[in-house]
Amino acid sequence: MKAEIIAINSHLLRGQVVNENACFLAQELTPLGISVDRSVMLKEDTEDLKEALELAEKRSDLIVITGGLGPGKNDITKKTLSEYLNVPLVLDNETQNRIISYHQNSGLTMPKYNQLQAMILMNSTLLENVTGLAAGFLYTQENTTYILLPGPFDELKPMFLEKAYPLIVKEVLNQPIIKTKKYSVYGLTLSQLNDQLDSLIQYEKNPFVGIYFEKDEAKIQITARASTEDKAEKLLSETAKKVKECIGDYIYGEDEKHLTHIVKQLLKEQGKTITAAESLTGGSFLDVISSEPESSEIFEGGIVTYSEQIKHHVLKVSTETLEKHGVVSAQCAIEMAENARQLFNADLAISLTGVAGPSSLEGELPGTVWIGLAQKGKETFAKKFHFGYKRDRNRRNSVLSALNMTRLALLEKPIKDQVFLETKDKH
């Protein structure tokens, strides 16, 4: 089955907003075996939309239109589709009552064209807007299905997942059994993942196996479709087993949670606290830790220091270490981590020191980073990383690597290439 996405929004064409709707919809439709072959952006123009619909009908079974459902005079989507299909719009009373109640309760004046938000095509299936006011709908004529969704992403996403997705499975795809598993991955680049999963990745077959990257954290999605629960489950489990055999060491979760959440949960479960001493990351590690809900249970404070004076006077990094080894060193990272742990009386401490870039430091290239890890009752160590030349990405990868080291330490799993202060041995 082929699909096309039509976005109605002049702001998209002016570069004022990003079309995250198309990205989201493609990610949701593709695993269902629905190939999104085209995505177009249009201004609010009736003739342009009619022309786009005519073209889309010739090559697609499913046409998803986003935007233009609001109360403004430029919101032309519903009227244009009604004219194009020669199907009248009708008022959905429940949506209309909710719109009236909203304006009465908020004390706002209802816009002149507001009733348009409650209109849907005759004989279509209403898609209720659970976070906004404008109703969407699903309508099928002959061999083409049309889905209208609002433009704001915080309205489109819940409407699609809660209302449209089940209808697509039931009415468009004839009720296949769909099973999905998602793995959260860190530590491999996109090219490395593609290489290691080369024989398994398939975006247009069953089961679907796809890779999605979000700021250097990866998600591996496996979606299996079958006529029965048993067949779908078997297909899913067989493929999931192969994925884990290929990259199991880099999988940190089987859901959509990020590394920060995983670390917080482990700390809470073990009744432990964490702190950090940061240099090149400027507080980013402390920020992601403290931004988690109920972070006060695992975190009481930390320190951000760029200068050698603060490293020495506050963190008690020795003069010998700073003069002999410098700040970009295992010795500095180890002392920062151990002294921060003692300063904040934490069970575990992370230190981050290195060269974010774009310039070199102490003869070290941008992307050279030392991360120290101190745990109560265990020997403190550091690990060296080489990231790249992009400052923001170096800082982001430093934080993610520190989180991953923390996760492995809490799970008592091996961490490669540890460097210790006295022996400098690597294990």
Automatic annotation (TrEMBL):
InterPro entries: CinA (IPR050101), CinA-like_C (IPR036653), CinA_C (IPR008136), CinA_KH (IPR041424), Competence-induced_CinA (IPR008135), MoaB/Mog-like_dom_sf (IPR036425), MoaB/Mog_dom (IPR001453)
Chain ranges of the MoaB/Mog domain: 4-170
Family in the record: Belongs to the CinA family.
Classification via Pfam families: CinA, CinA_KH, MoCF_biosynth
Bilayer-crossing regions: none
Organism: Candidatus Atopostipes pullistercoris
Top-level taxonomic group: Bacteria
Protein name (Swiss-Prot/TrEMBL): Putative competence-damage inducible protein
Gene3D superfamilies tied to this protein: 3.30.70.2860, CinA-like, MoaB/Mog-like domain
Entries under SUPFAM superfamilies matching the protein: CinA-like, Molybdenum cofactor biosynthesis proteins
CDD domains linked: cinA (cd00885)
